[in-house]
Amino acid sequence: MMATSWLCGILRNKLAVEKQRVASSGPRRWSNDQTLRLYLILALLPLTITVQAQVTVPSAASVAPAAKQAVSSVPADATAPVAPWKFVRLIKMRNPGAASLDRRGALYVADADNNLRQYGPEGLPLNTYAPAQPGHVAQVEAWNVTSTLVFNDDRQQLVLLDRFLTPITEVRLADFLDGTVRVATLAPDNRIWLLDESNLVLREFDPNTQLVIQNTPLDLIIGRSRPDFRFLRQYQNNTYLVDRNTGVYVFDNLGTYKKKMPFTGLSMVGFRGDELYYYADGALHFVHLYNLAERRVALPPDVPLAEVRQVLVGESFAYIFMAAGVSVYQYK
Q1: How do strand 99-101 and strand 317-322 relate by DSSP bridges?
Q2: CB atoms within 10 A of CB 201
Q3: Which residues contact 272 (CB under 8 A, 6 or more apart)?
Q4: Assign residue 39 a region: left if phi > 0, alpha if psi is -120 to 50, beta otherwise?
Q5: What is the pLDDT of residues 34-60, one digit of tens each?
Q6: pTM score, two decimals?
Q7: H/E element holding 295?
Q8: What are the domain boundaries of the chain?
Q9: Facing residues of 184 across strands?
Q10: How far apart are CA 186 and CA 206, in angstroms?
Q11: What Å distances lie between residue 206 and 137, 174, 183, CA to CA?
Q12: CA neighbor of 180 nearest in space, from 205, 215, 155, 160
C-alpha cells in the first residue's frame, strides 16, 4: 500500500514537470521525446489507481470477483448429526415371531398363536389370518404385495395368501419332496425357493405346475462345516441363504452359487434399496450390495438392547421386535 502511494506521487510530480516544460516552450511544436514521456505518464496513472483500489485478493480456487471476499456455500451446521428415529407407537403383542414387509410398507407379523397379522406402515391393524390347523410359522414373505407366503416348518406346509390375507392355495411339501425343508421364500415370479436340509440342496419349486425346476447341491459349497440355516430371501435377482455358523450364501436367480458374505451369528437379513442390513451388537449394519460399503446406525437410546430380537426397516418406518411387542419408529 505504501509503495503504491509513493509511485502515484512520483508520477503526479512528473506530470506537473512536463506540463511546465511544455508551457515554457511556447507555441513551438512538442518534440517526440516530450510527447512520449507525457503519454506514458497518462497511461500509467489509471493503472496505479486500480492497483491501489484492489484490497482483497481471493485464493487460487475461488470463483469470486477479485475485489470481493469469497463467501462459503457450506452451512455452518452441515456436519451436525441428524437423528433418524422418531417413536410412533407400540404394537402390543406377546412374543412376536416371523415377520416381513411388502413393497407398500405394510407389516406382517406372526403372533404367539401363529396367526398372521397385517398392519399399515404406521402400525395400525388391517387384517388377520387365523388358519384352521395352526402350525409353527417359520418364515413369512410378503414382498410381492399380490401374494404372501407362510411357511409352517413343523407341518412342512406352504400357504399362499392374497393381499387381504385370504387363502389362495396350500401345498404339502411331503407330496413332492423326500427331504425336510428348513427355510422357504417366495420369488418375484411366484416360484418358491426351498432349502432341503436333509439332502443339502437348494430347490426352486413351481406351485402352478407342482414341479421342482431347479436343484443346487450345497455339499461342495459348504464343505465340512455344520450349517445352521435360518433364513432365505430373494432380492434383486439374487437369492440369499443365511447360515448362522458360516455366513450368507448368495446365488443368482437360476440357483448358481456366486459368493459368501462373512456375516456370522445372524438369524435373518433385510434389504432396503441397494443395501443389505442386519442387527448385531446393538446396532443396525448396512452393507451396499454392489460396492460393499458399510455403515452403522445405532438404535434409539430408549430401546433396551438386551430385549431386541430383530429389526425390520422399510422406506419410511422401522420396526423393533421385543418380547412385549413391536415398536414402530419413523425412520429417515
Answers
A1: unpaired
A2: 19
A3: 286, 313, 314, 315
A4: alpha
A5: 544 544 444 444 444 444 444 444 443
A6: 0.75
A7: strand 294-298
A8: 1-22+39-49
A9: 194
A10: 10
A11: 21, 15, 16
A12: 155
